[in-house]
Structure formats: structure tokens, C-alpha cells
Write a structure and sequence with these properties.
Helix content: 25-40%
Shape: elongated
Distance between the termini: 46 Å
Number of helices: 3
Strand order of the largest sheet: 1-2
Strand content: 5-15%
Number of strands: 2
Largest sheet: 2 strands, antiparallel
Length: 92
């Protein structure tokens, strides 16, 4: 990874390397003293897939297991009870 030091002007503008020319960028505020600039991949809205297009159906065995767990859920473990109590206390 190449690191370079650049200086901003009075309006906090920064000149990026030529590789960023005419590009859409994503600026992430990583911390109070660090900013990450990445080139964005722009995808046309018509090219975005629906969630239903990418999910695979469950196998018969997995479907039956899932339905069995819904009908007869297992008893909560001590760790789950502790997490639920912490969540309840945190939420008020």
C-alpha cells in the first residue's frame, strides 16, 4: 500500500492522485484523525438484484428442521438468559 502526505487548502479541499479523476468516491471518517477515501463502484439501479434472486431455497431436511424448531423451541441456555437480562437492563 502506497502512503502519501498531502495538505488541504483553507476550505479543507484536497487534490487526489490522477487515478481518482472523474471518479465517484466514498469518504469514511475512520476516527477523529483518520479519513479513508475509496473509489466507489457505481451500479445502475436497474442492475441491482432483488434479495429473492440471490437466496437459495432450503433443502427439505433444513426446512423440516427449521419448522420443528419453531414448533418446539429449545429451552434458553444460561448464556442466552444472561444476554437477555443485560439487553433488558440496557434498554431501560
Amino acid at each position: 500500500m502506497h502512503t502519501e502526505t498531502r495538505t488541504t487548502d483553507a476550505k479543507a479541499r484536497l487534490v487526489l492522485p490522477k487515478a481518482f479523476a472523474n471518479a465517484t468516491v466514498i469518504i469514511d471518517q475512520v476516527s477523529e484523525t483518520e479519513v479513508r477515501v475509496r473509489r466507489a463502484k457505481v451500479v445502475a439501479e436497474d442492475d441491482l438484484p432483488f434479495a429473492e434472486e440471490s437466496s437459495a431455497p432450503l433443502s427439505d431436511r433444513d426446512r423440516d428442521h427449521f419448522l420443528q424448531l419453531l414448533a418446539n423451541p429449545p429451552a434458553p441456555t444460561p448464556a442466552l438468559k444472561k444476554a437477555a437480562a443485560g439487553h433488558k437492563a440496557h434498554r431501560g
